[in-house]
Amino acid sequence: MSGVSATVWSVGASAKVVLERSREAAPAPLRLAHRQARHELGLLCSLILANPASAATLAKLVDSEVERPEGALVLGVLLNLADYEEGARFWWEFAAGGGSHLAASCLWFWHQSRGEPRDAQFWRHQAEKLADEPQPQWRMPSPERPLVPRRVRADILARCKQGLAPRLPARMAAVLKSLPVQDDHHDWPEVPHWSPDVVCHLKAAAENC
Questions:
Q1: In Å, how far from its chain's centre is CA 28?
Q2: 129-161 tens-digit pLDDT
Q3: Buried (b) or exposed (e) across 156-194, using 16+ Cβ within 10 A?
Q4: N or C: which end of the chain has fewer CB within 10 A?
């Protein structure tokens, strides 16, 4: 199995466990269902950020003026963990539109956690449909460390287990909140946009966390 294929498989297999568990879970009381969805979203975000290709895919979100869904997925995860939820939803919808079942799964859990069952059900069906189709590849020229350090991912998981909302450290969140913002999308509030130096700034911030 090649390096790229192994990377794609590791995220897909781990995420599949999260998604299958959610599909098979017995119906829960409404409040509990919200908390469970938030928990599952945190786990999925942590798995995505653990992928060694996450930094490279985010860096190449715009490649030859074409926005790529795998980079949009990572940006959405980071924005969500920086408490920039509407920005996360924008980029997840973009990634899902490009065929990412992981992005559709993030939207499923996100809407469920907000008590929006109709939207959650829509994205659940989309995630299941997209999972049967060829997925965008996580292209990585050479192995590298994940975008988010192990200790930060461990904190995200710990907060999930404690029933708390997972968050990035303040320094990393500040990098994301400094991204250029455009408000020319009629159906959206301010949308944070990718910057070519965001990966460098995030890594620098992570080292000082």
A1: 25
A2: 998 877 656 554 444 667 888 888 889 888 887
A3: bbebbeeeeebbbbeebbebbeebeeeeeeeeeeebbbb
A4: N
> What's the chain's Rg over C-alpha atoms?
16
- The position carrying tokens 């959206």 is 188
In one-letter notation, the amino acid at residue 184 is D
Q: What tokens were used for 47?
A: 């798995």
Q: What is the pLDDT of residues 38-94, one digit of tens each?
A: 888 988 998 898 888 888 888 878 665 556 888 899 999 999 999 999 899 999 999
Residues near 105 by Cβ (< 8 Å), separated by ≥ 6? 15, 18, 19, 44, 123, 127
The pLDDT tens digits of the residues spanning 158-187 come to 888 787 888 999 999 999 989 888 765 556
Helix (H) or strand (E) holding 48: helix 30-50
pLDDT at position 103 over 50:
yes
Alpha-carbon distances, residue 159 vs 42, 81, 152, 162 (angstroms): 9, 12, 11, 5
The DSSP code sequence of 73-90 is HHHHHHHHHTT-HHHHHH
Pairing mode, if any, of strands 191-192 and 66-67?
unpaired
Paired tokens of 46: 């942590």
What does residue 132 show for φ and ψ, rounded to 5 degrees? -90, 0
CA–CA dist 12, 130 (Å, integer): 12
